[in-house]
Automatic annotation (TrEMBL):
It comes from Actinomadura livida. The lineage of its organism: Bacteria, Bacillati, Actinomycetota, Actinomycetes, Streptosporangiales. Residues 6-169 form the N-acetyltransferase domain. PROSITE patterns: GNAT. This is GNAT family protein. GO terms for molecular function: acyltransferase activity, transferring groups other than amino-acyl groups. PANTHER family: [RIBOSOMAL PROTEIN US5]-ALANINE N-ACETYLTRANSFERASE, GNAT FAMILY, PUTATIVE (AFU_ORTHOLOGUE AFUA_3G00765)-RELATED-RELATED. The keyword Acyltransferase applies. InterPro entries: Acyl_CoA_acyltransferase (IPR016181), GNAT_dom (IPR000182), N-acetyltransferase (IPR051531). Pfam families: Acetyltransf_3. Belongs to the acetyltransferase family. RimJ subfamily. The keyword Oxidoreductase does not apply.
Length: 174
């Protein structure tokens, strides 16, 4: 599965050190995703349990020119009795940012999730100060819905977030 320069693949056991970098290296996560050090064995435990893919969500590697450049993830958000949507996220290594790979990966993830699940809505959120991610989401076809005030605690203070979504009916024309 590739679109332009980006493809996805499931996480293999030898990819776990790559993923652990996002838990151990503040430079790898970037300023908007660093929330302090976390248990680096978290990825290994989850991988041993379900290879990071199950009905509640998943993680795939983002690959460009056969090189790992980041990850995409999604998790189930219950929206009502018998209904849910996906909340998606992305993290790219610093050297992969600013090249359009994130926009391609997010659009590709939307296509993938609509093709393989029955959800009608996919959403994403990012800190209000993360203008680059907001532009990427908009280029990927997401619609800005609003601001979530004091949504996430990071670096000693509460941060506002901006929420975006794309509906199945909107993505069908891509």
């Amino acid at each position: 599965m590739s679109i332009d320069q980006v493809s996805f693949r499931p996480v293999a056991e030898d990819d776990l050190p790559f993923l652990e970098r996002f838990l151990l290296d503040p430079e790898a996560t970037g300023p908007f995703e660093w929330h302090g050090w976390r248990d680096p064995r978290r990825w290994r435990r989850r991988w041993a349990e379900n290879a990071l893919l199950d009905s509640e969500g998943g993680v795939l590697l983002v690959v460009s020119d056969d090189e790992r450049v980041g990850l995409v993830a999604w998790r189930k958000i219950i929206t009502g009795q018998g209904s849910y949507c996906w909340n998606v996220g992305i993290n790219l290594l610093p050297e992969a940012r600013g090249k359009g790979l994130g926009t391609q990966a997010q659009r590709h993830l939307v296509r993938y999730l609509f093709a393989h699940t029955q959800v009608a809505r996919i959403e994403a959120d990012t800190e209000s100060a993360n203008v680059a991610e907001q532009r990427s989401l908009e280029k990927a076809g997401f619609t800005r819905e609003g601001v979530l005030r004091s949504y996430a605690f990071r670096d000693g203070e509460w941060r506002d977030a901006v929420i975006y979504s794309v509906l199945r009916s909107e993505a069908s024309s891509w």
